[in-house]
Amino acid sequence: MGSVINTAVVGYGYAGRCFHSYLVGLADGLNLYAISTRDPQRQANAKNDHPDVKIYSTIDELLNDDNVQLVVIATPHDSHAELAIKCMNAGRHVVVDKAMCMNTAEADAMISASKKNNVLLSVFQNRRWDSDYLTVKKAIDDGLLGKVFLIQVAILGYGRPGGWRGIKKHVGGQIYDWGAHLVDQCLRLVPSEVDTVFCDTHHIKWDIDIESHLNCIVRFKNGMSYGIELSNICRIKKPRWFVLGDKGTLCKYGLDPQEPAMVRGNIDAAVYNPEERPKVVTEIDGKVTEMTLDYIKGNWKAYYQNIADVLLKGAELAVKPEEVREN
To answer: Where are the domains of the chain?
Structure first.
């Protein structure tokens, strides 16, 4: 396959422009070769941002370029399956932004196309490399809280979702948007099969057909409960993480800082707010102890580096489509 993988990004909205084209350019072994977008203004933006990259107006034009080896799909959720399968049937490796697709039937068809054409398929679950997730995971794995029985996570804000993210047929709803990350983290953290799922939604505000507020409770067969709360009508933040164990409690406010740093042009300049480090109260050697945990730094660059290493060095794929299907 050579020493570099020519990579094309399909879609040049916020995700294609600020996430995928940027991170592809940082991965050793990947070459940002082409960008495809139907929007003339976004074509101009892409050319201005990446003067040496080929710009295509349709995915068919892009697939007619035999130099393209890997295609990144950064388009509305309801187009993911069709575009990914089209690319895989054309013999291209594919990365698709989260959410993977709209239902399990589409996921099965995508996985089948990957196997039939002997090409890579992966989903951009970059928040497996969030600082807060990695730090909380280590605290749980190290037994700092004892036997954990409750995890609550929340992404709350106030504002009308814009563009296609406010249209249910395109986005699928909040559980397909930020929820795709939170469910993925949930299933990575809890070593048990899901028993029951309860979801409560409210359509309170905005002239859109997705939820204003969503609360989901996942019960596992080992007895653990995992709460996921999402809102676009909340004016006061709750903790990003709240974890209860039989020895201790963890509370963490704030989001991973890689996204704003990346949008500013340098993900390595991410600033980790010391005031948002996880707070823990737990029992150690029979004594109640309060502590503030050090961050494990996030590393979104690891996702695309893994893709390059899989294709060029035979590494194990970090985000497998079969496990994302289970999300």
So the answer is: 5-125+301-325, 127-292
Instruction: Enumerate residues 6+ apart whose C-beta is below 8 A from 264.
Output: none
pLDDT in tens, 281-321: 999 999 999 999 999 999 999 999 999 999 999 999 999 99
Partnered with residue 242 across adjacent β-strands are 152, 251
Architecture of domain 5-125+301-325: 3-Layer(aba) Sandwich (3.40)
Assigned CATH class of 127-292:
alpha beta
Helix/strand/coil (H/E/C) assignment for every residue in the chain = CCCCEEEEEECCCHHHHHHHHHHHHHCCCEEEEEEECCCHHHHHHHHHHCCCCEEECCHHHHHCCCCCCEEEECCCHHHHHHHHHHHHHCCCEEEEECCCCCCHHHHHHHHHHHHHHCCCEEEECHHHHCHHHHHHHHHHHCCCCCCEEEEEEEEECECCCCHHHHCHHHHCCHHHCHHHHHHHHHHHHCCCCEEEEEEEEECCCCCCCCCCEEEEEEEECCCCEEEEEEECECCCCCCCEEEEECCCEEEECCCCCHHHHHHCCCHHHCCCCHHHCCEEEEEECCEEEEEECCCCCCCCHHHHHHHHHHHHHCCCCCCCHHHHHCC
| Residues facing 7 on adjacent strands | 32, 70
pTM beyond 0.90: the answer is: yes
Query: Which amino acid appears at position 72 of this protein?
Result: V
* Token code pair at residue 74: 């950064």
How far are the Cα atoms of 187, 298, 301 from residue 27, in angstroms, in the given order? 27, 16, 7
d(CA 77, CA 80): 5
| 226, amino acid identity | Y
Model confidence over 159-196: pLDDT tens digits?
A: 999 899 998 999 999 999 999 999 999 999 999 999 99
Distance CA 321, CA 110 (A): 9
CA distance 78 to 97: 11
